[in-house]
Amino acid sequence: KQMKRNVSFESYIGLPFHVEPRNIVGDVQERVSAEAAALSSRVHYYGRLTASSDRLLVPPDHVIPSPEDIYVYSPLGTAFKVQGGDSTAKNPSIVTIFAIWNTMMGTSILSMPWGIKQAGFTLGIIIIVLMGLLTLYCCYRVLKSTKSIPHVDTSDWEFPDVCKYYFGGFGKWSSLVFSLVSLIGAMVVYWVLMSNFLFNTGKFIYSDHHVSDQRVSLWSLSLVICPYPNLDPDGDSSTLQYYAGENSTGPVFDRWWSKTNTIPFYLIVLLLPLLNFRSASFFARFTFLGTLSVVYLIFLVTYKAIRLGFHLDFHWFDSSTFFVPEFRSLFPQLSGVLTLAFFIHNCIITLMKNNKHQENNVRDLSLAYLLVGLTYLYVGVLIFAVFPSPPLSKECIEPNFLDNFPSSDVLVFVARACLLFQMTSVYPLLGYLVRVQLMGQLFGDHYPGFLHVFILNILVVGAGVLMARFYPNIGSIIRYSGALCGLALVFVLPSLIHLTSLNRRGELRWPSAVFHGFLVLLGVANLFGQFFM
């Protein structure tokens, strides 16, 4: 009977079964829920008496609800009836692969052409391939980390729990801090990009209604601009101005609609109230826009390549007026961007739990990384190759490649507008994740009070405003935050956990120690390279 109780409790623990009838999805009659409420309270009481790994205290049979009273909450705030069997929906491999692809795809894709320019065309392609393989291996080590822990049920563990098991409180807090670095870094990049997209969107709309000499035409679809046309003082300035020139919108409009002086502050009115919501479930409904935005960017890049043609000239080590060398010493800037671009290590365990065929986890993870790497290569290589040199220098490629197209470009306007709406909906989700991780650890409550949450949101928003005002370079922000969080969560912690596990089992050999030690040194060099190269 005791064994029966354990199995029964394992089946139902953590599944909320008392829900208000109005929140139940489906044709379910309202019924008296007082008894269910009492049962729910008792189960939660037993759940708090002991840890999930301790089986000394288990609820008696009469506390465990019957199967017809079991419901599971969805992220959208509704409840679904459990029909029996495993309560967690499992996804086929194709869904898992594209879920990883969609999660990994972010703002880094806008900086790929700039990163290739910094590293050099040939070296850039090599680095993208190598960083993809290295981050894939480290992600594989994270995925396998829970399986190497003996005699402990790790079915509900995440990577911070693994870090705590091996390194105590230091491991748990270090993984938390560096995870927050990646989230806050992403929020800062979002603020800079939202300021950029809102500025260009407003400029397009204003010019469309107030400027008579419009260039919103098929010709403007082939126009590429250099925001800094005086990079080459010996070049043909008239040609550069021809490509870089845009219609003036007037001094009054420019004073009140400035990319760095006013727009970052306008966003506070829109986004700061959204960050104070208790739940971010409403914004989760718009996450599909990320997939649509990436698909549209791929279409946009393909169309631009057809319109502009290829402009390549190989100079292996020496630069020229319009081209950069194939191998450049600035390559760590690309590796820093790629560390964040391939970063999914802090949530890969959760994503893979929902895979229907667990034996295919390694294959599906590898295919997802292959898809991500091909997407980055396609966008980065194509934009670099079609950038019109001459008359413009490849050095003109911006950290956000959309800045190399004028505000009057209709297709780019659509891309900016879509990305602006998508980032506006995702930004509160990132803020919610920061709040849950930080407040949950400090106060044991995801929403300890309005004042606590408001102060946290002011600090996060303030960081975004300051960067958008004084340093709106998303390439540098991405590479610094990527190299910093990647040092711990990509290179150091997965390698140390694997070495510690092998050592405890007496299976550590010198080739493994040398290789994983090299990964740790690589992460350190990647971080220091952002400051010295």
Automatic annotation (TrEMBL):
Residues 96-215, 266-521 form the Amino acid transporter transmembrane domain. GO terms for molecular function: L-amino acid transmembrane transporter activity; metal ion binding. Pfam families: Aa_trans. It is found in: Late endosome membrane; Lysosome membrane. It catalyses: L-tyrosine(in) = L-tyrosine(out); L-asparagine(out) = L-asparagine(in); L-glutamine(out) = L-glutamine(in); L-leucine(in) = L-leucine(out). The chain crosses the membrane at residues 94-114, 120-140, 173-193, 256-275, 287-310, 330-352, 364-390, 410-430, 450-471, 477-501, 513-532. The keyword Metal-binding applies. It is a multi-pass membrane protein. Belongs to the amino acid/polyamine transporter 2 family. SLC38A9 subfamily. This is Neutral amino acid transporter 9. The lineage of its organism: Eukaryota, Metazoa, Chordata, Craniata, Vertebrata.
